[in-house]
Specification:
Helix content is about 40%, strand content about 5%. The protein has about 110 residues and is mainly alpha-helical. Strands 1-2 form a two-stranded antiparallel ribbon. β1 (about 40) and β2 form a beta hairpin.
C-alpha cells in the first residue's frame, strides 16, 4: 500500500486494508478480500486480482507506460494465475503490511 500512495501523485487512490474496509457496500465478501486486492472506482465498479492491478497500472503515472501489456492476448490469463500464486505466498515475499501479518478474518478487528 505504501508504494501505491507514493506513486499516486494525483492522490486519486485511497488504499485501505481489507481488515478495516467496509466491504459489503461494494459486494465484496471477506473471503474474496482475503484472497485478492480490490479496486473500487468512484462509479462503483469493482475490480479484483489481476484486473485490479491492470487498473492500477492505468491510473498510476509511473506504471501507465506499461498498462498496454495487459491488452496483449493471453496476458490477463497468465497475470491472474501469477497474481493468485503470489497472493497465497505474499508473506514469503517480504510483505510488511498489517494485511500480510494478520492474514485472515480470524484476526480481523471488531467492526
Amino acid at each position: 500500500m505504501g508504494a501505491v500512495k507514493r506513486w499516486d501523485s494525483a492522490g486519486r487512490i485511497d488504499p485501505v486494508a481489507y481488515q478495516v474496509a467496509e466491504l459489503e457496500p461494494y459486494g465484496v465478501s471477506l473471503k474474496a478480500a482475503e484472497q485478492a486486492m480490490h479496486l473500487v472506482a468512484p462509479s462503483g465498479a469493482v475490480w479484483s486480482g489481476a484486473a485490479a492491478a491492470r487498473e492500477l497500472f492505468r491510473l498510476l503515472p509511473v506504471l501507465r507506460p506499461l498498462a498496454w501489456l495487459f491488452r496483449v492476448p493471453g496476458v490477463m490469463f497468465v497475470t491472474e494465475r501469477a497474481y493468485r500464486w503470489v497472493a497465497r505466498r505474499r508473506h514469503r515475499f517480504g510483505c510488511e503490511s498489517s494485511a500480510c501479518k494478520r492474514g485472515t478474518s480470524e484476526s480481523r478487528p471488531p467492526a
